[in-house]
User: Fold this.
Amino acid sequence: MIISDIIKNLIIGFWRNGVILLCKTVLEHLILSLLIIVLIAYLCSDSETAVYAWFLIGIFAIYSAVKAIVDIFIETKNYIKAINVENKTFILQNIGGKIFDFILCAVGIFQTLRIFTHMSRITKSTSSAMNVVDDVAGAISKFLENLKR
Assistant:
């Protein structure tokens, strides 16, 4: 196979085995998909459970990304071993779908990291604000103590 055929089959696989298959799966399991979205939205709406929800999303995204990478390596090995063009085409389209899976998981991982970074900044800002309030209260206390003398 020439490089243009390889790229074409990867793009076809990305579209068919990635985007279209994701849409079909969501539509076939519409009630379950909606329940999962509602559950995640509910968990993220509360500040105490949002951390756990994003932690679970991050763990699942990392697991799925690693699984997609392993599948890409396995399919690549199968592509090298394949003899006829039909099998190579099928394998390349599977690899294209796995690339879509990996990209989708990478987006989930980066979104989770962005949320945790934001939470970390909020925690640091809150800590700094509490230190300022504590320092101001200490200064007022010393000022009042000096006034009594």
